Amino acid sequence: xxxxxxxxxxxxxxxxxxxxxxxxxxxxxxxxxxxxxxxxxxxxxxxxxxxxxxxxxxxxxxxxxxxxxxxxxxxxxxxxxxxxxxxxxxxxxxxxxxxxxxxxxxxxxxxxxxxxxxxxxxxxxxxxxxxxxxxxxxxxxxxxxxxxxxxxxxxxxxxxxxxxxxxxxxxxxxxxxxxxxxxxxxxxxxxxxxxxxxxxxxxxxxxxxxxxxxxxxxxxxxxxxxxxxxxxxxxxxxxxxxxxxxxxxxxxxxxxxxxxxxxxxxxxxxxxxxxxxxxxxxxxxxxxxxxxxxxxxxxxxxxxxxxxxxxxxxxxxxxxx
Amino acid sequence: xxxxxxxxxxxxxxxxxxxxxxxxxxxxxxxxxxxxxxxxxxxxxxxxxxxxxxxxxxxxxxxxxxxxxxxxxxxxxxxxxxxxxxxxxxxxxxxxxxxxxxxxxxxxxxxxxxxxxxxxxxxxxxxxxxxxxxxxxxxxxxxxxxxxxxxxxxxxxxxxxxxxxxxxxxxxxxxxxxxxxxxxxxxxxxxxxxxxxxxxxxxxxxxxxxxxxxxxxxxxxxxxxxxxxxxxxxxxxxxxxxxxxxxxxxxxxxxxxxxxxxxxxxxxxxxxxxxxxxxxxxxxxxxxxxxxxxxxxxxxxxxxxxxxxxxxxxxxxxxxxxxxxxxxxxxxxxxxxxxxxxxxxxxxxxxxxxxxxxxxxxxxxxxxxxxxxxxxxxxxxxxxxxxxxxxxxxxxxxxxxxxxxxxxxxxxxxxxxxxxxxxxxxx
Lengths: 321, 427
Known about the structure:
The structure holds 2 protein chains of 2 kinds. Chain A contains 12 helices and 14 strands. Chain A is α/β, with parallel strands linked by helices. Chain A is globular. In chain A, the strands form 3 sheets. Chain A has a 7-stranded mixed beta sheet with strand order 3-2-4-5-7-6-12, with helices on both faces. Chain A has a 5-stranded mixed beta sheet with strand order 9-11-10-13-14, sandwiched between helices. A two-stranded antiparallel sheet of chain A has the order 1-8. By secondary structure, chain B is an alpha+beta fold. In chain B, the strands form 5 sheets. In chain B, strands 8, 11, 14, 15, 16, 17 and 18 form a 7-stranded mixed beta sheet that branches. Chain B has a 4-stranded antiparallel beta sheet with strand order 4-3-1-6, with no helix packed on it. In chain B, a hairpin with a 5-residue loop joins strand 12 and strand 13 (301-302). In chain B, helix 7 crosses helix 8 and helix 7 crosses helix 9. Chains A and B meet through loops of A and helix 2 of B.
């Protein structure tokens, strides 16, 4: 075990898997010589060479498309979108090619697409989005979103080994803010939810950076016993863990940093409405960003993103219900 | 006493859910009754105040006898004579008229109820709506939510409030089935529990006897009557169900609807078995109304009916049987669901029993018993006439039939037809 940041844990996972499996290669914009926009792949080109740490043109469609071809012939490419927001340029290759190849032609597409996502640092509308729900809606893809350093490493390794295309959401605001003990060597984190804090009166269901916001918001809330469930994986969604938490707590707040409409939490709410109805002791409450682009202005951004105060207030209202 | 099905002549009041003086909404359950066909709830025919209960719990009365009177010109929120203190503030302006003078104090908690429960007309109905989890827990533990003090917004009852009531009772006062059951043994524990140390010497003191349940009495009467009435014979046949087993897995259903489908085919071929015999009136049916015996644990059994079964596929039969069994076990069958069977199948084989001599449900003339499907070595003959021993899933079908209505040869031909249909079942 050693303590490292969320960002270093991702690097550690990539490096571990590249050392263990020579089929693994990285592709992305400025990930080689420059070491990546956030320095996730800093030093990789020196260790693994330019054949396995490939600087690509500014063409996300080309990156993903090349990766799909490489996967079909047996390699295990990991693509970096410099910002999650830019993935829309590679959308067709992910949705219509990677996601459907197995169904159409029986060919597994073992690629991982890393999406540095999320806001909270005045990145503005093109550098702050949380587009995970786009991919949840499209069959054939898995979507994961770690919140801790330990899970960041375990999930990047699990994503690379998973035979399906995996969209790996890494939250930029956690990169250097979150640190944790990370096991040495190689391990996989399962595509299932994790109880970040046990509790019995209310459960906050969330993932990614909002796990930390939710933990802070509910740490000491009127002596209530509040569970925080970290989904970790959005596809597959750990329905059993969600329903078990609802059964235990009966009151549910779902937090998305993403824009509210059709966000991951909407799927969680629908699941609970259908299968957890008899366990509910109040309305399922959602806290999310309103359906607007993320503003540049720090003041406005703070008003848009779910905050500690907003989550606290939502929990308090529901506890009193 | 409502007419619950054409043949029902009388019913017994099992429980009064409402007491004299209680306000009842239209269609709200006022009491539970038991007839020889079915146990059911009696809904209020109109909204009003229950002013008189005329039939006591345990009393059996004829259909058409008045059970209780509801005063429909009463108004909600008005106190009745048993509420001797001042009316609550919310209804202070209402005249304190008494619609049921002279009725003694009924429900023991009537006064305290009124303090906590908003009257139905008081508009603020939010506090009387309960969340799904609260209703479920209250049902499981028999908690009257009207008596639970809510701590939520505007007095709303929260899960923790009803849990507190359950915890305060310590489980002793609950009528939850789970409370009656012995505490389950953890898998790491020995299942052995020392007994109370009862002495085996000295005279034996039997536990106190209790009256047989209404359902058991009704079953007893019907079964005994059948044995006295019919000339019951039983014929068995052994059937290879290999094809049923394959079809069952393919369709993801149980074997019962598939065997039922084959039986229905044989009934259409031999309609004399799809018949009633009442004294000397012999009714042969074209339509197959298939009775399926459903066990209700140790309470007894009930035989819901799949009407027009001759028109249903195995999947359709499976759905209908599942639905009827589910409603039978939750006591939600209507009288029509248990009426009009022309032939019955009973299927106790899930416990591994091999043979039985079922009793015919009168006035039907036969009943088919499906026993356990067991793999056995059997002699099979291939297309060249060579014999071999093969392992095949086999079942014994037993047909009890009424010798007054038919003879053994017909029973045997009927069973042979069922066997042929089962063994040549087309997937």
